[in-house]
Every structure is written in C-alpha cells, then in structure tokens.
Recover the amino acids of this structure.
C-alpha cells in the first residue's frame, strides 16, 4: 500500500514539473502570437489544479495509510485509536497522524500554488534562452 502511495506521489510531482514544459512546447508549435499571455494563463490554471490535487492527495493518502495500519479514527483516546496498530508500525502511525493534523489541504494547496507560480516564469525564460542559443550559429 505504501508503495502505491509513493508511486502516485511521484507521478503527481512529475506532472507538476513536466506540465509547464510540455505546455510551452505545445504553444510554441501551434502559433507565435501571444504565447506568453496564453502560457501564463493556462499555466496558472494548470498549476492551481495540480496544487489542489497534490494537496488533497497528501491528506487522503495519510488517511488511507493510517487505516491500512489499523488506526481507529473513531477512538476517543489515543490508546483506543492505536489499539489495532502493530508494535512495529506504531512510530510510523504516530508520524502520519502528526502530519495530518494542523492546517488542512485547502491551505496547503494555496501555499503550493504560491510556491509553484514562479516556476512558470523560470520555464518560460529558460525556454527563451534555449531558443536564442539554438538560433545562434
């Protein structure tokens, strides 16, 4: 179960890294007018969607792993919640629980979007630099 969660996390992270690059390549192939504006608008929408999905999946995967390890969400005390957890998984379950409390996934998504937005500019200007380097003889 943990391997599946890690695979999905890596896939989502790969989408976050590769999607602005693929979007820029596709826009450059289609036309040359207004690429920057279209790229920024579509990129911001794409990054917002991916940030929401990635943040939601982080909380959901924690809940899935907690229930997989035997954590009882309905228990009133910590002893009741941890009664079905095996001894070797106790530290991992406590760490997962601690990471799931605090700010919720919507706030994490907002922070992720704010942190990912400059990446769009880095990709765009990096692509412009590569295009200029290819154009020089």
């Amino acid at each position: 179960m943990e391997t599946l969660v890690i695979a999905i996390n890596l896939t989502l992270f790969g989408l976050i890294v590769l999607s602005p690059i693929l979007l820029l390549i596709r826009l450059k192939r289609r036309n040359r007018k207004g690429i920057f504006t279209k790229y920024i608008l579509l990129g911001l929408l794409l990054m917002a969607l991916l940030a929401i999905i990635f943040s939601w999946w982080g909380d959901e995967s924690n809940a899935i792993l907690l229930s997989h390890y035997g954590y009882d969400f309905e228990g009133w005390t910590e002893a009741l919640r941890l009664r079905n957890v095996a001894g070797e998984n106790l530290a991992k379950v406590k760490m997962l629980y601690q990471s799931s409390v605090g700010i919720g996934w919507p706030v994490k998504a907002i922070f992720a979007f704010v942190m990912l937005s400059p990446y769009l500019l880095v990709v765009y200007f990096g692509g412009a630099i590569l295009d200029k380097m290819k154009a020089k003889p």
Remarks:
- The chain has a mean pLDDT of 88.
- Helices lie at 2-30, 35-68, 78-81, 90-100, 105-135.
- The radius of gyration is 21 Å.
